[in-house]
Design goal:
8 helices, about 250 residues, globular, 10 strands, Rossmann fold
């Protein structure tokens, strides 16, 4: 069984008597440890698909199964628990709280999960070690570069040890070099067994992932799996991140 399964998923809105299909009969499997991009222009349905994949929204039709849980049958509490334990979210604008330091920002998801203070700190420090920011624990977001802020956001997404990391335009506010370092970090995380999903409109960003899913008019227009095609590009772009940090 795939880690995340979509079967004949549609998302339909009704506006002014008109039916709008943001997603139209989409079926998709995502396996553990995959590094995959979802690409499409504005209005293609990729954001709706991201919300469905992240269990932030439910389909009008079709079935979604996440880590063995059929989403349509889960209560709101069960869904929140599955989402909190299974999915980590990374966004373009970082969403760090300016009055909290780095360590406190990373601890936030665990506060919502009811985890005690000592364990919160230990897990937050471990996550920050993974993104090489243990020397910045007491800094506030405005004392960090854009790349460092994004790495804090990634650490925050990792503290509950999610199986899936869902990143929405994660390099959109970063310069090219720093963006390459962030993508190299995502490659490493996928290599460690996490499923990493990049949502982007940028073909150059999508090109670094072994599997690419193109969305147009609410449908999967095409899929490219570089491994199956013998064109594996996991090492494309920047390669491994150098020791210097963004």
């Amino acid at each position: 069984m795939a880690l995340l399964e979509l079967r004949n998923v549609s998302k339909i809105y009704h506006l002014g008597g008109e039916e709008i299909r943001a997603l139209d009969d989409v079926s998709l499997d995502l396996e553990q440890g995959e590094f995959v991009s979802i690409i499409g222009p504005s209005g293609s349905g990729k954001s709706t698909l991201m919300h469905i994949l992240g269990c932030l929204d439910t389909p009008t039709r079709g079935n979604v199964t996440l880590a063995g849980t059929e989403i349509a049958r889960a209560s709101a509490r069960e869904l929140a628990k599955v989402r909190n334990r299974t999915i980590g979210f990374v966004f373009q604008f970082f969403n760090l709280l300016p009055k909290l330091n780095v360590l406190q920002n990373v601890e936030l998801p665990m506060i919502y999960a009811g985890i005690g203070g000592r364990e919160r700190r230990a897990r937050a420090e471990k996550a920050l070690e993974m993104v090489e920011l243990t020397h910045r624990l007491k800094n506030r977001p405005n004392q960090l570069s854009g790349g460092q802020q994004q790495r804090v956001a990634i650490a925050r997404a990792l503290v509950n040890n999610p199986k899936i990391l869902l990143a929405d335009e994660p390099t959109g506010n970063l310069d090219t070099h720093t963006g390459e370092l962030i993508l190299a970090l995502f490659r490493r995380l996928a290599g460690e067994g996490r499923t990493v999903i990049l949502v982007t409109h940028n073909p150059e960003i999508a090109a670094v992932t072994p599997r690419r899913i193109e969305i147009r008019n609410g449908r999967i227009a095409q899929q490219v799996d570089a491994k199956l095609a013998g064109l594996d590009r996991v090492g494309a772009g920047s390669g491994s991140a150098p020791s210097s940090s963004p």
